[in-house]
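Note to self: user wants both folds in one dump. Writing first protein now.
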Amino acid sequence: MTPERSNCLETLARLILEVERPHPVRVAIDGPDAAGKTILADELEPLIERSGRPVIRASVDGFHRPRAARYARGPDSAEGYYRDSFDYAALRAALLDPLGPGGSLNFRRRAFDYRTDEPVAAPIERTAPDAILLLDGVFLLRPELIDAWDMRVFVAVPFSETQRRAAVRDSAYLGGEEEALRRYAGRYVPGQQLYFAEARPQEKADVVMHNDDPDRPRLLMGSPPADEGQAPIAGQIGAVEITIDR
């Protein structure tokens, strides 16, 4: 890992640890497909655990809707990708609401396995009030979920770069590099563009991580609208770029 990325991760972990809530801190790690969200969450986990606070790792991928519902508008539908992919009611009921204000602290990490296209009877787990949830996935800052986060991180990467990465990452799953590029151009990127237009996720993020060069990421602090009912994260200083020593 480069010193630039290490410094970036340390800074982001510190910002997360500075968020104070009387319940577990729910952190969204949002961004387009192949932006590096899962890698980022996995890298942050040990840094936060080092503080002594428990970490819950989960992904929106554990809350897919059944295949028939996801592709009801057609396999290449961008609108279907944005509107039909995930069961947000299940995500809230199983994970986000139990960890939020007045929640029971009893949660499930997932409810559905998209690989087998079947519901999952995940075990009920219990956590402490000072736990931190790191949940990665697409479309997390949409209206159905926006009030459920205590910190919002957006991983920003140009679509040209996410498509290049996806052609490598998803070629086996989607039937080859050419088919992966076709699917991204027809369904996934336009679905993200629809999300950007409707939800404006970068404007709602507390922190934007520019990850087009993973070795040299950059953090930019944001200022979400005050009427969303969430207190700003500790140390928020407006739209000021955090300088990373090089």
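First done. Writing the second protein, which came from a different request thread.
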Amino acid sequence: MSTRLTKKAKETFESIKHIDEKGQEYWSSRELSKALGYSDYRYFEDVARRAYRACAKSGINPTDHFVVKHEMVQIGSSAEREIVTVFMSRYACYLAMQNASSAKPIVAQAQTYFAIQTRRAELLLKSDSPLTAEEERRLLLRDEVRKHNTQLAGAANNAGVKTPLDYAIFQNEGYKGLYGGLDRKDIHKRKGLKKSQDILDHMGSTELAANLFRATQTEDVLRKQGIKGKSNANRTHKEIGAKVRKAIRDIGGTMPENLPVTDSIKKLENRQKKLNNKLNPSEGED
């Protein structure tokens, strides 16, 4: 059986990858179990335990790679029970795949996927110009913001924000809430950016994370509450932006308009592309 990584397999494991508030990637043990075709989660729990022990034996602190989460889920109209999910780093997944049943074709594909990702990370660390942790977080978060802005636009459209001008106004309201009354034009001026420069491309990871939270929460509220009308959508976006700002203030964080401007994300994307081409131009996809 070939263990070359197929495009479908790569897309499967990429689609269930999550990014936390610090820009770190992780996988849910329950989602990973389903993707690998385990009909009973208990069998995958045993795989995860063996991976945890392997991590500990290697001298690496397993709690850095395996984070246990306890959640309550409904099992009836008024009953709940606690379930345990493990959030696993790329390295944790790599170890788990070495302990999973390779008789399952998808497991063999997963072994290849996580081996490639882990090896790439090792090579990047040894590269002449590796990306810093902050640069990696910026790249991950900027990509997440792009995806969620698209989803936010869809939710806004359903609410009645139809034209490009409507959407520009809608986005400005979100910025006003988060940036203490400043709209996109004001933010450009305050940060010394040119009109042609996208402010999101010049944000550090902290500022990107704040904007990502604003976008995801606004989308969620628009959809769940079924908000209709441009004015209502605009007001919702501004209110949520203001709540994110208040949360930053409450924890003693720096207001987003006061965070430093960074080099364009395009430069990092070009560096990452060159590094990827240099280290592994082909992942052996079918």
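Dump finished. Worth passing along: The first helix runs from residue 7 to 15.
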